[in-house]
């Protein structure tokens, strides 16, 4: 089963932040993925290796870049993982190989203190799908750059509304966020629309179809969002 990892590299001026990103990159590319696709935003590649494919771009990576890999006929059946650049992946993520079609895994992160991020139901940093044909509805709506407040909830809603199941087994797969000086997301930059809140769960919750993990479709106002 082929395993593909996707993330972005960019010109980070802050040296502390750059070291955090490089730590994540070198950790993730050595986890055991068969192919690593790095979108280099207006910068020279930082990694060159036989299993790394560098793509030059002049824009922020989007969910459409992820979907284009997922729907590529050459990848059908492969495990495809998209991650934010400042995440150290848990090696357990590779155990998702063989994930059924029409399922999106949207994983919330753990902070450096080993605690699950606050309000994990509406904050995800890693997305996993099996490569498969994708409906045009998802393709047409997925050109959403990562890093915009609300992008994760919007993408989850788009995929869910197209008939996919969406789960957040972050109680099993514990990815770590490296960001010493976390920036505040401004509401004025938020991507509004219907959101999907994806409840943290275990594999057992999914297997037993427990009702407490059913995603919640909401239409947020311009305030802080809670279920």
Can you give a write-up of this model?
With 227 residues, this protein is of the alpha/beta class. It has a single domain (3-218), classed as Spore Coat Polysaccharide Biosynthesis Protein SpsA, Chain A, CATH 3.90.550. It is 20% helix and 22% strand. The chain has five helices and eleven strands. The strands form three sheets. The chain has a seven-stranded mixed beta sheet with strand order 3-2-1-4-7-6-8, sandwiched between helices. It has a two-stranded antiparallel sheet with strand order 5-9. The chain has a two-stranded antiparallel sheet with strand order 10-11. Mean pLDDT is 92; it is low at 222-227.
List keywords for this structure.
227 residues; 5 helices; single chain; 20% helix; Spore Coat Polysaccharide Biosynthesis Protein SpsA, Chain A; disordered C terminus; globular; alpha/beta; seven-stranded mixed sheet
Main sheet properties: 7 strands, mixed
Tell me the β content. Answer: 15-25%
Low-confidence stretches: 222-227
Counting copies of identical and different chains, the oligomeric state is single chain
* CA-atom Rg in angstroms: 17 Å
General form: globular
Q: Which CATH architecture would you pick? A: Alpha-Beta Complex
> How many angstroms separate the termini?
37 Å
Lateral strand order in the biggest sheet: 3-2-1-4-7-6-8
């Amino acid at each position: 089963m082929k395993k593909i990892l996707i993330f972005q590299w960019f010109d980070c001026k802050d040296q502390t932040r750059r070291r955090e990103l490089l730590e994540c990159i070198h950790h993730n590319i050595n986890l055991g993925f068969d192919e690593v696709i790095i979108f280099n935003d207006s910068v020279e590649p930082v990694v060159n290796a036989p299993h790394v494919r560098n793509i030059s771009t002049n824009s922020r990576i989007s969910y459409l870049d992820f979907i284009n890999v997922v729907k590529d006929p050459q990848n059908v059946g492969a495990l495809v993982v998209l991650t934010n650049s400042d995440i150290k992946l848990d090696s357990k993520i590779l155990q998702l190989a063989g994930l059924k079609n029409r399922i999106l895994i949207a994983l919330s992160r753990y902070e450096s203190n080993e605690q699950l991020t606050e309000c994990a139901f509406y904050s995800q940093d890693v997305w996993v799908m099996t490569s498969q044909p994708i409906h045009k509805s998802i393709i047409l709506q997925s050109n959403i750059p990562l890093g915009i407040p609300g992008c994760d909830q919007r993408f989850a809603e788009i995929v869910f509304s197209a008939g996919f199941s969406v789960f957040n087994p972050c109680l099993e797969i514990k990815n770590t966020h490296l960001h010493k000086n976390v920036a505040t997301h401004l509401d004025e930059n938020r991507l509004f629309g219907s959101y999907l809140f994806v409840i943290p769960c275990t594999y057992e919750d999914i297997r037993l179809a427990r009702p407490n993990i059913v995603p919640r479709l909401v239409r947020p106002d311009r305030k802080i969002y809670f279920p």
